[in-house]
Amino acid sequence: MTAVLDTTVTVTADVVAEQGTPIFDEGHCPGTTSLAPVVGGTQTVPVSGGREVRYANFDYAASAPALTEVAEAFTAALGQYASVHRGAGHLSQVTTARYEQARETVRRFVGGRADDTVVFTRNTTDSINLAAHILPADGEVVVLDIEHHANLLPWQRTGRARVVVARSTFAETLAALEAELAARPAALLAITGASNVTGEVLPIRTLTALAHRHGARILVDAAQLVAHRAVSLASHGIDYLVFSGHKVYAPFGAGVLVGRSDWLDAAQPYLAGGGATQNVALEETTWHTGPARHEAGSPNVLGAVAIAAAADAIDHLGYELIGYHERDLLTRLDAGLAGLEGVTPLRIFDDVDERVGIAGFVVDGRTAREVAEHLSEHHGIGVRDGKFCAHPVLRRLGHADGAVRASFGLGTSSDDVDRLIAALAELTR
Ligand code: PMP
Q1: Predicted confidence (pLDDT) per residue in 247-285, tens digit
Q2: Which of 81, 211, 311, 410 could form a disulfide with 218 if both were Cys (CB 3.0 to 4.6 A apart)?
Q3: For 44-66+318-428, which CATH class?
Q4: Stretch 230-244: mean pLDDT, rounded?
Q5: Are strands 403-407 and 358-363 parallel, antiparallel or unpaired?
Q6: What atom in ligand 1 is closest to the CA of residue 150?
Q7: Which positions are catalytic?
Q8: Are 237 and 219 in contact (CB under 8 A)?
Q9: Are 145 and 197 in contact (CB under 8 A)?
Q10: 224, 226, 391: which to mutate for ligand 1, most atoms within 8 A of CB?
Q11: Atom of ligand 1 at shortest distance to CA of 246?
Q12: C-alpha–C-alpha distance, residues 253 and 105, integer Å
């Protein structure tokens, strides 16, 4: 099966490292190539005039393509796949070991503490719904209005959410959060690590210290972060961290919640059913503690294995290299967009420079849908248009009708960026 995987073989960490340091001199800029092979990296698509062009995927922030290494690990696990946590058969044991090993790999990947619980879920949305489910009964949660709906609606539904409207600078926003937490205690600050609309990265250490100073825990929505930046529960002091496999090059339907075990063990099981139970009688059930408590039913073993493979692949490449590649492309993209008439970039904060590979923007005189359709139909370029499941912040920024988002990652090259800019230049001319 691996033989049919379609990949673009480019620069890997090994190749770059062999070239000695400094790695990124003028003559060898990693941004001129993609950084790692992804499945479907050379896929062509039809465009106007009956032509076929290589697909330029600028929608990584929605779902990133699978890394080749992830697809290979997935295929290997599939070849030995059998029931998990059930059978005495050899392959059942192999599969169970793979699943539990994936848990430990994820723990290591996000710097989980030894006593943190690592729960496999369906995605970030599921993980935050689980977090809302384990929130202590009298606990309130503070959130910003810039959040993806996944980090708003589960809290809204508890009836115990307090929303702070972000200000035009992060410094003022921090002061507003501080005032909110000081005015009334909260159990939790639930906040994004990076905006899915603008890519702006929030300073986690500062936020963690803020929450803890006021006796609150912190949950970081790392859906847009972990593919791009190193994050560590232990060293950043994060209490709960959530992310999705499909945004870290493991699009096989699994997600993660990692964090403090006390709330998880005190809460009722998220799902009632087999696998979560210690002992069942018709009148009464005793439940497991630990991850099994919230993973009733047959888990997505292969999804978890894929996330672990992605974690290993990212660790192998290293965040330093990933950061170089991404900054290089982002600088190129930002500069290209800045040179276009009538294109306005989206920003939430005036004082946040750090961004992951996301550029949100609007084009004068064109709806976001028109721009996205034009890029697809005439240039074979895939971007996202709409409100990015972040309606409150889009509305507050004055773009209630939506915007365009170009996002990229390990499989993106500077050629892709140049194609996007050239296509937009043609459209805006
Ligand atoms: N949070 C953020 C910041 C996101 O970007 C997304 C996905 N766009 C989510 C949460 C939800 O992720 P999922 O759809 O995988 O549940």
Answers
A1: 999 999 999 999 999 999 999 999 999 999 999 999 999
A2: 211
A3: alpha beta
A4: 98
A5: antiparallel
A6: 10
A7: 389
A8: no
A9: no
A10: 224
A11: 15
A12: 17
Mean pLDDT of 170-192: 98
Q: Write down the pLDDT at residue 371.
A: 98
DSSP states of 90-130: HHHHHHHHHHHHHHHHHHHHTT--TT-EEEEESSHHHHHHH
Q: Please say if the pLDDT value at position 1 is more than 70.
A: no
Q: Which residue has the CA at smallest separation from atom 4 of ligand 1?
A: 223
**Torsion angle of the four alpha carbons 205, 210, 215, 216, in this order, in degrees rounded to the nearest 10:** -70
**Best mutation site among 228, 242, 244, 385 for ligand 1 pocket (most ligand atoms within 8 Å of CB):** 244
Shortest-distance Cα residue to atom 13 of ligand 1: 124
Q: Where are the domains of the chain?
A: 44-66+318-428, 69-316
**Is residue 415 pLDDT above 70, yes or no?**
yes
Q: What's the rounded mean pLDDT across residues 114-126?
A: 98
Task: Quote the ligand 1 centre to 86 CA distance (angstroms).
Answer: 32
Mean pLDDT of 184-188: 97
- 59 C-alpha vs ligand 1 centroid, how far in Å? 13
Confidence of residue 26 (pLDDT cuts 50, 70, 90): very low
Ligand 1: atom nearest CA of 193 is 3
Beta-ladder partners of 119? 257
Percent of the chain beyond pLDDT 70?
Answer: 93
From atom 12 of ligand 1, which residue's Cα is the shortest distance away? 124
Distance (Å) from CA 26 to ligand 1 centroid: 36
* Beta-bridge partner residues of 149: none
What is the Å distance from ligand 1's center to 379 Cα?
Answer: 27
Which of 197, 247, 393 should be mutated for ligand 1, with most atoms under 8 A from CB?
247
pLDDT at 7: 33
Identity of the residue numbered 14:
D
191 has pLDDT over 80: yes
Residues framing ligand 1 (Cβ under 6 A): 123-125, 148, 150-151, 192, 196, 221, 223-224, 244, 246, 389
CA 251 to ligand 1 center in whole angstroms: 13
- Rounded to whole angstroms, the Cα distance separating 362 from 376 reads 17
| DSSP secondary structure of 60-98 | TTT-PPPBHHHHHHHHHHHHT---SSS--SHHHHHHHHH
In the predicted model, what is the mean pLDDT of the chain? 93
> Which architecture characterizes domain 69-316 according to CATH?
3-Layer(aba) Sandwich (3.40)
Q: Is the pLDDT of residue 32 over 70?
A: no
